[in-house]
Amino acid sequence: MFVFVRTVTYATLFIGFVLVYLPARVLSWSGIARPATIGVPQVAGMMIGAAAAAVALWCIFTFVWIGRGTPAPFDPPRRLVILGPYRFVRNPMYMGAGFALASAALFFQSLPLLAYAGFFFLVTHLLVVFYEEPALRRTFGQEYEAYCRQVRRWRPKMRAA
């Protein structure tokens, strides 16, 4: 239960800062306000955002119940998480967060917010390549290497029927 509380705390802080506060600042600085009407871009943005949030929540619960740890780099899972959304790509939580940002850019029709989403993807890619993957190799060794051979970092493998 304590792992769940820690995970919810860290996820709330991350979501609040990276996915709410900073995008709100980008919108404010760029002078973009909420759309007066809800049209196709807004509906599409809400649908993509809901799907992205569902993936992120699935990842969070998978970390708690399978990994016995949190998504925070300073409080990582005790076991390698390769189930749930991690069966398809190695970094679905970052993808969910990035797509949530991109969906907000679509909702607000904001190029500055889309640039922020691109910056988010760049920073997370660098974090994954230079910190997370080496740390996972040190911690989980051959098990992680085998997982890397089976599951791509960002794009799911297309399987023949």
Structure write-up:
By secondary structure, the protein is an all-alpha fold. Helices cover 70% and strands 0% of the residues. α1 packs antiparallel against α2 and α2 packs antiparallel against α3. The model has no long low-confidence stretch (mean pLDDT 89).
Task: Tag the structure with descriptive keywords.
elongated; mainly alpha; 70% helix; 161 residues
Briefly summarize what is shown.
It is built from 5 helices and no strands. It is mainly alpha-helical. The model has no long low-confidence stretch (mean pLDDT 89).
Radius of gyration: 17 Å
Query: Which structural class should the secondary elements be placed in?
Result: mainly alpha
Order of helices and strands: HHHHH
- What shape does the CA trace take? elongated
Helix content: over 70%
Q: Strand share of the residues?
A: under 5%
Mean pLDDT: 89
Task: Please render the helix and strand layout as text.
Layout: H1 2-30, H2 40-67, H3 92-108, H4 111-140, H5 142-150
